Amino acid sequence: MHTFAQTVTQMSTTTERAATFLEKGGTGKTTSAAHLGVALAEAGEDVLLIDLAGKQGDLAKHFGVWDEVQEQINEGDDWPNISTVFAEEWDQIATKLGDAAVESLIIETDEGVDLIPAHPGLDSLDADLGNIDDARERYSRLEQFLDEYIDDRYDTVIIDLPGLTNNVSYNGLWATKHVIAPVEMGPFESEQAAALRNDLEKIYDRFDVAVELAMVLPNKVDRRTNLANEYLESFDEDYADAIAPAHVPVSQDIRNAADDGQTVFALEEPSTTAERAREAFLENATALQRRLDGSA
Amino acid sequence: MTDDAELEELKAATQRGDRNDEVDTEGPTTFTDEIVDALEAIEQGELGKTIAVRDQPIAALLATLDADGNEDRMQSVGQALEDELGREHSEAFDRSEIVRLALRVGLQAAAEETMVDLNDAVGEHARQNL
What we know:
- The structure holds 2 protein chains of 2 kinds.
- The model of chain A is unreliable at 1-12 (pLDDT under 50).
- By secondary structure, chain A is α/β, with parallel strands linked by helices.
- Chain A is 50% helix and 11% strand.
- Chain B is built from 6 helices and no strands.
- The longest helix of chain B has 17 residues, at 112-128.
- Chain B is extended, with a radius of gyration of 19 Å.
- The two termini of chain B are 26 Å apart.
């Protein structure tokens, strides 16, 4: 049995994990992962972001490091990479390479967070995972990697998942047990959020693995429209236990910053909406942290 | 076996490319070979990699989509095209990306075999340059 002091110590050294996921594209999963990560880093957390969302490398582009990743790929200096950690042979590789195995996966960004970028190998990974007969083994490869090689290095790990349900996204859900679902104020997102909640229940029924909807994050909200306000109220009611405390306003500055390879936290002269977006992400990051460590 | 050799073996077993690298190994068609040659010529700077077309209505449409205030329309067009290609949704689009996607959707719908040849050629070209 653990004493209270032991329990507190264990909690403070635990790496918290969450994944941005919704089975719909364009709702702001990557932007949310990037901004929540930077917001947590601003609060003093050691943060690692992992991009499983696809070979296009949007998270690396968001931090202006995609050219570096492309250069490694072009020069054949891209092994091991994120797709390698799903391989059966990963433990052997990590043993042979030592610390360099994990360190070579990670890129430092200018905004205080570390990143494991996407790789073209993610493209064919899903089909290969599908060949693993045992479902638990198929879905737990990433969890094993995080358990053994990433925990204790970081306070928080946020994973950006593909906008569809496949073997890779299931690995992300399995490994994090916590979902952040960015939603726009529209009917499709409302349906997809409901479908996500159903899926999480099914995972629990079938595998006894509890994946919690940690945060429903209203994104790109334009409060000048009645429809947006109605959807916002409806999300507030339907997801009272998971709704984020602050919604992220629609802001061209977020897109412009992403195009320039940075988050709004890096803007030197942020506009009013960019300031509001920053405040929203900071408030949401604090709430997320509490929900992940169970202190909320 | 030395450590290095073992590591090389592990690398060979676990290094994965994208779908284009994993296409079937049937012999490429002559047309595919010609595209591979053209890709190589572009790489060497012997052929240009940009395309330009004169088309007033499409130019007007693209300029309008790209105008401030029409971001949602641009995004819905772009994502509809991505849907047709079975691709993940992007969040932001520019004129070039819309044209690139629209060309692929059109070719896919009207000349599927030619697109298969193109994809094979891209895969083959990537393999040759590993």
